Amino acid sequence: MRITPGLRAVIAAAALLAGLAGCTDAPSESPRPTASRTAEPAPAASVSATFVSVVDGDTIKSSAGTVRLIGIDTPERGECGHHEATAAIERLLSPGHPVTLELPAGQNDIDRHGRLVRYATTASGVDLGLMQLEAGNAIARYDSTDGYPAHPREALYRAAQIAGPGPDGAVVTVACQNPQPSAARPSGGRWWELYRSCGQLRKNTAGHPIGPFDRDDPAESEIYEWFAHGTGNNGDGDGDGRACE
């Protein structure tokens, strides 16, 4: 076929257009993060659950799973103060009661035992961890001061602590810092002031009554006031007017 000057011009124009089209960038996939990229901390999360039972003073079972309370440590089973710390939660919660479980940003989701790591708050707004510290049943531990992730309430928790660690690191509760008296029952005296907590009273061998003590009973009202407000251990944890239940 004879290529005329006009046809040659058309071919040249087509070739130029094809060349320009070849220079256009083809769409590509979004770059993937490299293996060394640091994951963002988990955001704060709060869920509603129901209380099932107490494991000990710093661990509960809930409908969401077993929960290790953030930032506190209470006596282990068999240690002095274990019963009191456990009973403090039992006075506040019964099976089926609602609890709010909160995971602060940056905290570990679970511990090495597979337990959820959470704040736990009752429907009436009681922070179980803070309650144990204020009652002298726990010490503030497992936070940024000893190599664990910081948590938002750790300064509050440390300020609230009135118990302390023993030489071996075990938790020494307030009740265990004041051993039960062995004296006989005083005649006509304020015998209840010998005891610094309901737990200590329950262990007495002097024959003193162990409660409960009714706020509205004139014969028991002073005893109630002592254990509910005088010892610093909140013997009426559920606020029903009966101490040392």
Written overview of the protein:
It is a single chain. The protein has 245 residues and is α+β, with helices and mostly antiparallel strands. It folds into 2 domains: 45-173, Beta Barrel (OB fold (Dihydrolipoamide Acetyltransferase, E2P)); 178-243, no CATH class. It is 25% helix and 19% strand. The strands form 4 sheets. A 5-stranded mixed barrel has the order 1-2-3-6-5. A two-stranded antiparallel sheet has the order 4-7. The protein has a two-stranded antiparallel sheet with strand order 8-9.
Level of helix content?
25-40%
Number of helices: 7
CATH topology of the largest domain: OB fold (Dihydrolipoamide Acetyltransferase, E2P)
SS-derived structural category: alpha+beta
The rough form would be described as: globular
The CATH class of the largest domain, by name, is Mainly Beta
Order of helices and strands: HEEEEHEEHEHEEHHEHE
Strand content: 15-25%
The CATH architecture assignment of the largest domain turns out to be: Beta Barrel
Which regions contain 5 or more consecutive residues with pLDDT less than 50?
20-41, 180-188
Q: Find the count of extended strands (DSSP E, 2+ residues).
A: 11
Tell me the domain tally: 2
Summarize this structure briefly:
Helix 3 (128-134) runs parallel beside helix 4. A hairpin with a 2-residue loop joins strand 2 (59-62) and strand 3 (65-69). Helix content is 25%, strand content 19%.
